[in-house]
Known about the structure:
The complex is a heterotrimer.
Chain A: H1 2-21, H2 23-55, E1 59-60, E2 63-64, E3 67-71, H3 79-87, E4 93-103, E5 106-113, H4 132-136, E6 142-144, H5 146-151, E7 171-173, E8 182-186, H6 187-193, E9 201-204, H7 209-218, E10 223-227, H8 230-270, H9 272-280, H10 285-330, H11 342-372, H12 378-408, H13 413-445, H14 451-502, E11 507-509, H15 516-519, E12 528-541, E13 544-551, H16 556-559, E14 563-566, H17 570-574, E15 580-584, H18 585-591, E16 598-603, E17 606-616, E18 624-629, H19 630-636, E19 641-649, H20 655-665, E20 673-675, H21 676-690, H22 692-729, H23 734-776, H24 786-820
Parallel strand pairs in A: 5-8, 6-7, 13-18, 15-17
Antiparallel strand pairs in A: 1-2, 3-9, 3-10, 4-5, 4-9, 11-19, 11-20, 12-13, 12-19, 14-17, 15-18, 16-17
Chain B: E1 2-13, E2 16-28, E3 33-38, H1 44-52, E4 59-64, E5 67-68, H2 74-84, E6 85-89, H3 100-111, H4 116-126, H5 141-153, E7 159-163, H6 171-188, E8 191-195, H7 199-202, E9 207-212, E10 215-219
Parallel strand pairs in B: 3-8, 3-9, 6-7, 7-8
Antiparallel strand pairs in B: 1-2, 1-4, 4-5, 9-10
Chain C: H1 21-24, E1 53-64, E2 69-80, E3 94-103, E4 108-116, E5 122-126, E6 132-136, E7 139-144, E8 147-157, E9 160-167, E10 173-174, E11 180-182, E12 189-206, E13 209-224, E14 234-242, E15 247-254, E16 261-267, E17 273-276, E18 282-292, E19 298-309, E20 314-320, E21 326-327, E22 333-342, E23 350-356
Antiparallel strand pairs in C: 1-2, 1-13, 2-3, 3-4, 5-6, 6-7, 7-8, 8-9, 9-12, 10-12, 11-12, 12-13, 14-15, 14-23, 15-16, 16-17, 18-19, 19-20, 20-22, 21-22, 22-23
Amino acid sequence: MRRLLSVLTRVLLTLLSHYRRHIAQTLFLAIGLVTGVGLWSAVQIINDHARASYSEADQLLGAQASHWVRARDGAGIDPADYIALRRDGFTQLYPILETRLAVNDEPLWLIATDLLALPRSESPLGASGGDWPSLVQPPYQTWYPPDLAADFGIGPGDTLMLDDGRQLPPAALQQQPQQGRRLFMDIGAALAVLQRDHFSYLGVGELSSAETDRLRRALPNHLQLVDNRQRLDLTQLTASLHSHLTAMSLLAFAVGLFIVFNAVRFALHLRRPTLHTLRELGASSRMLSVAVLLEALVWSALGTLGGLAAGRALATLLLPPVASSLQSLYGAVVGTDIQLGWARILLAWGITLVGLLLALAWPLWREAQQNIRQARSASDDWAADRQARRWLALFGLLLAVAALMLHSRMSTVTQGFVVLGLSLFAAAFVLPVWLASALRLVERCLPEPAWKLRWALRDAWAQLPQVRVAMMALLLALTANLGVETLVGSFRSALTIWLDQRLAADLYIQDDSLRLAAFTDHGAAPWLVASHQRNGVQIRWSGRPTLIRGLNTNAPDSRALPLADANEHLQDWFDGDNDWVLANEQVHHLAGVELGDRVQVDTAQGPQAFRIAGFFHDYGSPYFQLYLPYATVERLWPNASPEGLALWLSDAPDAEQQAESALLAAGAQPGDWLNQNTIKRVSLRIFDRTFAITTAMNGLTLSVAGIALLAALLALHQQRLSHYAHWRALGVRYREWLLIVALPLALLVALTGLAALPLGALLSSLLVHDLNVHAFGWTMPLQWQWPPALRLAALTAAVLGLTLLISLWQVRRRLPLALKQLGEDDA
Amino acid sequence: MLELTDVHKHFQQADGAVRVLDGLSTSLAPGRSAALLGESGSGKSTLLHLIAGLDSADSGRIVLDGTDTSAFKDADWAAWRRDKLSLIFQNYHLVPTLTVADNLALQARLAGRFDGDFYDHLVARLGLSDLLKRLPHQLSGGQQQRVAIGRALLHRPALVLADEPTGNLDERSSAAVMALLTELVREAGASLLMVTHSPAMAAHLDERWQLTNGRLETAA
Amino acid sequence: MRYARLLIIALISHAVADDYQLLRADPSGYPRAVPNPAIEFPTDHLPHPDFRIEWWYLTANLTDADGESWGLQWTLFRQAMTPNADPGGWASKQVWMAHAALSTPTGHRYAERFARGGIGQAGVALNDTGDFNAWLDDWQWTGTAGSLFPGTLDLAFDAINLDITLNSTTPWVLQGEAGYHQKSDLGQASHYYSQPHIQIDGELTVDGETFTVSGPGWLDREWSSQPLAPNQPGWDWFSLHLNDGSALMVYQLRNDNGEPWINGTWVDADGRSQSLERGAIELTAESFTTLTLPTGEQKTLPLDWTLRLPDRNHSWRITALRPDSWLSTLFPYWEGPVVAQSQNPATPGGMGYLELTGY
């Protein structure tokens, strides 16, 4: 046994010595592993982190938050009510002021509380870590999480100027539990600095059911106790987003695996003599297999470690935009301190190992086959390659059939991604056959005298077996890029149009306690053309948070609602018929409700049924939403609060100015209203940030494909160096060599790119028409745009040029030696 | 055609420097053929490499077709090989992706001297008429070497260098290929320097050069 | 005295190394305790917001219908975070802290609360009807007009509900020189007065079970800006209700490098008091008890003492009723009921409270 082990060790060391001698290949193998694992784990880390944050969503700044106390009219909590409740013994209550600020139109969230009142398990101030007296006493402090401070270029002691002209207190780099990417202030300081006199709401720590009942009874009429279901809701609402990210990371991992596959195959190929020698020296083929597997184990461990390190670094870079999207879209508080758990490390290792074994299996099998037929001739190679292409294509077709079958019965996001993955890989596997067929066709079209072109084209056949895998990786990367770019482009243009329709009014009042009558003369003013006061209440329906909105059905923006679908009863709804409601299309796609269906919702008067007259687009919202007439909402949900007052201004040039003066005169603060353009700008910025990670992942995937191509080319050229020496001996000039080598490669890349166009369109169609609908319930027209495709083509050409340049340089460097050795292998 | 004067070449090896060519001098007149004989490792191939510019001598003068090569750059050598020289190797080294026709025409096309009539003539002489559309791996060794010979002669080189051209062929094909080679070289008006270890093959040629201890002994 | 009680101010970052550092902190900028002006009522029952620290400190030895012993402690602390002017409201510089502890026949339960000043969540003031009121959230002491007595105390914490009345008829005992109370040779001092004769009656509900209790209580009022000298690590403080109706307060401020500062007051049943100076008190720790706290930390404490007043020929052996009376609050300390056993036929036995800090 010991002898066996020592022989095995010797064999393993002999095998591994290869990597010392072929640094470039070693590097590529490592890069393939590290980038693949890195991209995958970066997303996993982000997902884990976000999910961990959701599971803390029943916590607020380190305190339990099982309920909220909110004002029924949306006006916030009077501090006097809070003190009265505290003095009534409800010491689990704590005041929260939460608000969105803007700095250079960039949204920024602030949360404030009274640390002394916070029912944390630990000592109240010991845990806060900061300088409490400075926090609560003028000039106060603003506590920034370090990454947020870095984003805004804020250092300790700096003050941030808000868009409304207010100055935040000096910064301290400090953070509280569950602060996320929010600013933290003492609530007294926040009231003073933001000139507020009400809290946003009260957090409620853990209460027994008896205490909960007592609290419910003790609350004054204008306040209500609301369950905190964020923990459940966030996990549910964000699931689709995280599946999206996971799918993209798996794609990146697969593309990384292509590099690994190529590198492993090449490493085995180069070591064939070593393997034979070892066998001649008495190492059994089983022992060799074990040694190769051990080698895979070593590589997987190295790849995992490197990949996780890279992934962690990447996650740190990508988390802030993801966190801020989660905050914008779902109100999820996600901090940016990353933890890497053991489970994740082991999983990364496991998937790397599986990936490596997959990459090894085929070359090893081929190697075993070749031992049988040692005498290998060129014709075998050609035939084998042709056969390999056919097998791949067959497998690809099987995948395509599977994708097609699954597509017809697809109903969940995960299934959607499986279909997507199957389609992509089917395409990748069919690619070699497509390339070969296209080559043959082009060849046939060449005129007889074009011998150089013909030679170049014919050379493609020599390159194809080597660059096949790289081309497959490139196809995946290009397709993903095109598909996602199209999705993002379609979504962005749909969103822009939607915002234009949806945000028809000129001013939107943010402060829900501000009434039209307060700043106009009974709702009339010379600068005012129309107004629309809505009300709303949040309920649960069909397992999801659902927003009930009361509209003036005749308001200009109600009339112009961007509808996805409607039936003939739309007019009834406009006429204020209580029977009919409009629902957002999420209700249709996620809850399976059809036009004309009855939906039953809980009201203060008991369950009430409505019928659907139409579905409207509601991009960006994870909730269900029902539009009813204002009065109906007021009647059925007495606790509904005014939400959102929209104002249409006259054409007078100073109308906006007059409106603002009127608002200020009525006691509104700058920032209590927003104009249409600001909202659009901010919305689109949030949108762009949300897709920043997508773009980043796509770019990275493409560069991984570029690396795969480079690795393949370098290996190819190293193998073909003696051929090139012979060409040179025939008098081939370098530019001729370049033409012969580069043209077919460019052609292969171009053919791959060409294949990526319809595939990208297919992918985007899957994403837009299936996945997006299943994931978010949003539909939009697919908009194919050429600029991204052209950009991508230019980028690919640049990548190709670069890899060619590098490989040309390599060949020139090595050619003299190859020339000296010309004919030596003949003996 | 070929004039070598006091050519030295050594290789560094683990056990010290090996002088492969040690003051070698010789010449070959245009149209003449010579067999280069010698033991394994005596430097026959090295000499061929030096003449083709695939390797460089330590010292000495190599004059090719009246041109002193000592000032030749890499590109000059490439041009020389393309225009004036042909190399024939034991393993044929056809371009595997090109048809017989394209392989045959390759060097002539590179040199810009493709002559259709001569091409047809060579195809006929080499007996390749039926094989023109085939790929090299579909040919026998003898057939491949005939393609290599055709490729080497179509551009009418001044000098043909052959390194064991029949080394991979059986005796019968060897003789046939050898006969064709010498005959066609003569027809093309080229000089021929051929490395061989076979006296039988050497007998086909005008001169026999014996390489011993880095120098040549010439036998008529 | 009972600086003990200052425990407040964790809030202040200096307090990290030594829980009681605040009490020794440089008082510059704050007013200092001085012999004049004299104590005045009801003004001095109310806060002295410029002084750094202040407290209202009640302890009581109660007995239920079955004769079981209970101990009650309620303390309200005020601290000013800075010597600067107080902006008031949400920006107030005042911080309030309260401790409630109940020594039951089977254990010791306590709670700690904090509140900022200026917002009405905590404070000491005359309420709308002009009655004395000291509160933090729903814990509160309500007196009658400007006086603390007759008064009621309502506490609720940890499944304990306490509703008691407090009565006292004897005059306030002004400690030291008419309420100016020196704490060291270095001039550390406070304003300090007490009421050792409080009759307490009321009801306790613990885990749903109600007990009717009564017994004597003791209230200390003290405010200062630096009550401890830098070399005083802590103190041992006794308040005893003796069976003949008199009361006794004795404390020693331990000294890192010398004799403790020892002092006391004898109060007879009518409320007349007499200071006990250094030579008149002999205080000896007889044995030490090691407690293991819930955190696993161990504390070795003197819970067994001999106290002699040689001039009066009195001698007591004073032992803790329940050793387990450690409060792991922001400022941790031991406080619990004790039994004073007479060691001398002429000496009345009694009950009382012991406070140990700086251990």
